[in-house]
Amino acid sequence: MQAVLLFFFSAALLFSPYAPLRASVVINEVLTGAQTGGEWIEIFNSGAAPENLSGWQLYPDSAGYFSFPADFIIGAKKFVVVRLRAAGTDSQSDLYHASALSNMGNTSGSAALFSGTPRSKQTIKSFVQWGREGETWEDAASDAGLWDRGSYAATTSPAAGFSIGLTADGVSAGSAGAWSIFSAPTPGSANARPPAAAGGLAAPAAAGAGSSSVPATAAANSSAGIAAPLPWLRAYAGQDRIVGAGSQTDFTGSAAGIKGEPLEGARFLWNFGDGEIKEGRAASHIFQIPGVYTVGLHVSSHSEAVSDYLRVSVVPNKVTIESVVQGADGFVRMKNEGDDEIDIGGWIMEDAKGKRFALPARTKIAPKSEVAFANAVTGILKTGDSAALALYYPNGIPAIRWSMPSPAPPAPLAERERSSAAQASGYTAAAGVSAGKRAASAPASSVAASASVPRAGPRDRVSSGTAKKADGVSAPISARPKTQGVKLFWITAIASGIAAVGFFLTKMFL
Questions:
Q1: Range of 150's domain?
Q2: For the chain, how big is the Rg over CA atoms in Å?
Q3: What DSSP character marks residue 118?
Q4: Which long-range CB contacts under 8 A does 73-78 form with residues at least 24 apart?
Q5: Which of 66, 30, 68 lies closest to 51 in space, CA to CA?
Q6: pLDDT tens per residue across span 11-50
Q7: Distant-in-sequence, close-in-space partners of 38: CB < 8 Å, separation ≥ 6
Q8: 6: left (phi over 0), alpha (psi -120 to 50) or beta
Q9: Is there a domain that residue 464 lies in?
Q10: 28, 142, 424, 479: least surrounded by Cβ within 10 Å?
Q11: pLDDT at residue 441 in the model
Q12: Distance of alpha carbon 260 from its chain centroid, rounded?
């Protein structure tokens, strides 16, 4: 019977989702609030035997994965510190991630430890996230039973010199409640001292990204000679966003003390990631060139400082002017041909008369959509004689120029002369063709001009100025038949011939 119970107990341990995941090697302490080269993650082997970390990987928030050296052994009850963006010689106590891409997030972030690849819930062995929920690898850690989904270590950003660490060294079944803030970091040694703040669990319902923190103030331990820590700041730069190149982007930051109290005299400094900086709690900026920019808000008050970051994706401007209708009842129609919503607030429209209108702040055009601005509202293009329109970015740089299509230019002089000659020849030819063909080929102007002339019968006299035809269509005088002149020519010729013959006979016989 005991053998049967032992079998079922062993099977339960084997198939329990937690049993194989209780690794003895864990993330034990993290220092994020430091200058470049000063941040680190401490790994601790709480087991009774050495561990070979060959093939293991560490994820330091935003810094890029670190692979442990081949056949690296961490001894039992030993620590190793992985130092970020610092150069040095690897040893059993210190490893260097010199190729780290950036510092870890102060306000929020996460760290994860994997026993190999592919990185997944099967290989994740330790995890911590701070400042807010939903950080990288939270889902995998939760599915592996290493983390309570939606919770995070109760701080948005430790002040300079403070670290986030396990209250009890080596606790592998981590949760937010197992982590505390320490005023005196201990890289390479145990966290066995009263923490600066008790590590309470921040409830997801009360969590606001980048700004939630419910730490408890630690009482001074006078008997141990440990003073209570100074309060630290909390800062929030805002959410990630997508903006159009040339658009004005507004930023509003916030900061508070440990109890959420407003800060008097705090300094706000914005670094927009493109070389420009501005001071003030609220600031606006125009990104000129498409790209992905990391915008940092740096808040300082007295001797304390804290930072928070957001990401701004700047996409090319794909706003066009679709149509323009002048006059008091007209409008200007614009279209966003891109795949992202574009804010055109602050853009300026100007007509050829110099009349301007600034679009109200936060005027947006949805993707693949059109909007129209009535002239009655903007006050531009109302006179009906403004044949041009210009659209400027908020900083005055031209964005779009539109002009009324010009009429077709007149034909060259030579072409007009050929046309006139063709019309004249048409009039002349019309006199020698039948009535039906003449009506079809004669220019419309000549037909229209003759339409007002009454029809005359076949025997009507020819009135001055026109020649009457049997079909009633009047033709210009220049088109009158020349048969009478031909007859007169032959009559004169015959008469002259007769006179010449008579003169010759007279001379011969007289």
A1: 12-217
A2: 47
A3: S
A4: 74/25, 74/43, 74/45, 74/50, 75/45, 75/50, 76/45, 76/47, 76/48, 76/49, 76/50, 77/45, 77/46, 77/47, 77/48, 78/44, 78/45
A5: 68
A6: 444 444 333 344 689 999 998 877 778 899 999 998 889 9
A7: 31, 86
A8: alpha
A9: no
A10: 424
A11: 38
A12: 34
Q: What's 473's DSSP letter? A: -
- For strands 241-244 and 304-315, give the pairing: parallel
What is the C-alpha to C-alpha distance for residues 201 and 296, in angstroms, rounded to an integer?
A: 27
Residue 100 burial (10 A CB sphere; 0-12, 13-18, 19+): buried
The answer as to whether 428 is a domain residue is: no
Computed over every residue of the chain, the mean pLDDT equals 73
262/147 same-domain check: no
Inside any domain, residue 304: yes
Averaged pLDDT, 386-393: 82
Q: Pick the most confident of 69-73, 415-419, 478-482.
A: 69-73
For residues 50 and 246, what is the distance between their CA atoms, to the nearest angstrom? 58
Residue with tokens 């033709």: 475
Pick the range with the lowest mean pLDDT from 109-118, 232-241, 248-257, 417-426: 417-426
Q: 348 lies in a domain?
A: yes
Cβ–Cβ contacts within 10 Å for residue 493, how many? 10
Using CB atoms within 10 Å of the CB of residue 284, give its burial: 0 to 12 exposed, 13 to 18 middle, 19+ buried: middle
Across the range 419-426, mean pLDDT stands at 52
Burial of 250 (0-12, 13-18, 19+ CB in 10 A): middle
Distant-in-sequence, close-in-space partners of 370: CB < 8 Å, separation ≥ 6: 322, 333, 334, 335, 336
